[in-house]
Design brief:
This protein is mostly beta strands and about 140 residues long. The chain has a single domain, classed as Immunoglobulin-like (Sandwich), CATH 2.60.40.1890. The chain contains no helices and 13 strands. Pfam families: PCuAC. This is Copper(I)-binding protein.
Length: about 140
């Protein structure tokens, strides 16, 4: 298990063949990163977070050695226009799952070090100072 101190996470890679990792209370299921458009250094990541504890957990940061920054984003409808907005954290209610998917909640990835590899280490940190390292897969829609 890896812990975060003051929202700064170390990097320890825990890989499981089924692409599912566990911290003390949060499971990260099937994370994937959309391959960036050629010539662009940004993309998005998607997954399902499952909270197996009896208390809400709040995702406060995500980091990766292959991205300069990662933000948690949501989609909003404003005056008939769909807009993405950064949110400071993402609550995963006790005993429930939250899915990050295209057109909804997602992680925005900036400053990508391309070309990306097929397996991408990421570290997810929560407000209880718990972090989980995981490997996302690279997904090419083409």
């Amino acid at each position: 298990m890896k812990f975060c101190l003051k929202r700064v996470c170390g990097s320890v890679l825990l890989t499981v063949a089924s692409f599912s990792a566990t911290a003390e209370s949060v499971l990260v299921h099937d994370p994937y990163v959309r391959e960036p458009v050629p010539g662009r250094s940004m993309s998005a990541a998607f997954m399902t977070l499952t909270n197996s504890s009896d208390q809400a957990q709040r995702l406060v940061s995500v980091s990766a050695p292959w991205a300069s920054s990662i933000e948690i984003h949501t989609h909003l409808h404003e005056n008939g226009v769909m807009k993405m907005r950064q949110i400071e954290s993402l609550e995963v209610p006790a005993g429930e799952s939250v899915t990050l998917e295209p057109g909804g909640l997602h992680l925005m990835l900036f400053g990508l070090k391309t070309p990306l590899k097929s397996e991408l280490p990421m570290t997810f940190c929560f407000d209880n100072s718990e972090c989980v390292a995981h490997t996302a897969r690279l997904f090419s829609p083409m």
